[in-house]
């Protein structure tokens, strides 16, 4: 059981989360285990890692990859929105660092059988956890009205051709259901002008569908709402995002929680009584090096932001 996933920004994650001997870490989206493996190497001999993932396939892959660390590893098949509950259930305390990587792994794209990739012909599923989620991408494509599909494409992926794509989907499904990834790709390609770009025309459509099926933007907000409660002073939180909508949510939250007062400037005395809980470790998002992009093109849009609990 081999993973083909390459962890993004691995050097940057290690630099800014700074794992040390005998420290405890949480990887909220353990995926193929690449980040976790490096962290466990650096936190021996007694440092522990709690690894979570909503995808049961990712848990199997990471368990295999991290077999040599099994005495220091706790793996849980849950979405990261359950982080606070899992931490208390597992009694996993004194956490020094938390990582959340919001990207899809190469294993999910190429070998999941759930239609995450527009390059492989698979059913239009896109669920991270088929056992817990009955709602699929095929439901959206074949049942939603045109305006709702258009709105989803705009809001989840900022797709500039949302109207044309939504209309074309409706016309196509009048003939027969769109059941597979390549059937959907054919509809999109016909209705999105091909530019001189390495970005596939269906990229944003697939992104929007995956995010809708798995409620991703809402889930990021839910995690941020809870995560401060389990962070002790000195604990660092690193979040890797892959598009502007996720990054905006993270950026605004980090900024809000790193400033004491949010009262209007014309008010001479603070009335909101808000106290900063975070210190910005990265003032700006950290992206991949040119070398990493050349080796792994999917890393091109990755952005890492890191904060520390005060």
Care to describe what's here?
This protein folds into 2 domains: 10-107 and 216-309, Vaccinia Virus protein VP39 (Rossmann fold, 3-Layer(aba) Sandwich); 134-213, Putative methyltransferase TM0872, insert domain (DNA polymerase, domain 1), CATH 1.10.150. It is 42% helix and 11% strand. The chain has 13 helices and 7 strands. Strands 3-2-1-4-5-7-6 form a 7-stranded mixed sheet, sandwiched between helices. Strand 1 (24-27), helix 2 and strand 2 (49-52) form a beta-alpha-beta unit.
Total helical segments: 13
Show unreliable segments.
none
The largest pleated sheet is described as:
7 strands, mixed
Number of domains: 2
The CATH superfamily name of the largest domain is Vaccinia Virus protein VP39
Give me the side-by-side strand order of the main sheet.
3-2-1-4-5-7-6
From the alpha-carbon coordinates, what is the Rg to the nearest angstrom? 21 Å
Oligomeric form of this entry?
A: single chain
Any idea what the shape is? Answer: globular
CATH topology of the largest domain: Rossmann fold
- Briefly note the structural class of the backbone: alpha/beta
The proportion of residues in beta strands is 5-15%
Helix-strand pattern? HEHEHEHEHHHHHHHEHEHE
Through-space gap between termini = 41 Å
């Amino acid at each position: 059981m081999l993973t083909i996933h390459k962890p993004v920004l691995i050097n940057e994650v290690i630099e800014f989360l700074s794992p040390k001997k005998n420290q405890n870490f949480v990887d909220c989206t353990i995926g193929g285990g690449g980040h976790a493996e490096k962290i466990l190497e650096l936190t021996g001999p007694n440092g522990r890692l709690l690894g979570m993932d909503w995808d049961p396939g990712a848990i199997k892959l990471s368990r295999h990859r991290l077999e040599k660390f099994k005495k220091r590893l706790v793996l849980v098949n849950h979405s990261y929105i359950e982080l606070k509950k899992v931490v208390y259930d597992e009694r996993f305390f004194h956490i020094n660092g938390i990582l959340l990587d919001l990207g899809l792994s190469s294993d999910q794209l190429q070998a999941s059988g759930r239609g995450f990739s527009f390059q492989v012909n698979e059913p239009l599923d896109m669920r991270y956890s088929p056992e817990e989620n009955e709602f699929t991408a095929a439901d959206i494509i074949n049942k939603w009205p045109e305006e709702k599909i258009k709105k989803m494409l705009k809001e989840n992926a900022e797709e500039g051709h949302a109207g044309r794509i939504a209309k074309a989907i409706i016309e196509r499904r009048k003939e027969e259901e769109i059941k597979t990834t390549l059937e959907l790709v054919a509809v999109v390609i016909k209705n999105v002008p091909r530019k001189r770009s390495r970005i596939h025309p269906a990229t944003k459509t697939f992104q929007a569908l995956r995010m809708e099926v798995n409620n991703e933007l809402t889930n990021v907000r839910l995690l941020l709402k809870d995560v401060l409660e389990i962070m002790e002073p000195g604990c660092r939180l690193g979040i890797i995002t892959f598009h502007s909508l996720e990054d905006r949510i993270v950026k605004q939250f980090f900024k809000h929680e790193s400033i004491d007062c949010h009262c209007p400037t014309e008010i001479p005395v603070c009335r909101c009584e808000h106290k900063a809980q975070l210190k910005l470790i990265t003032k700006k998002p950290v992206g991949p090096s040119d070398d990493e992009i050349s080796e792994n093109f999917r890393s091109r849009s990755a952005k890492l932001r890191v904060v520390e609990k005060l």
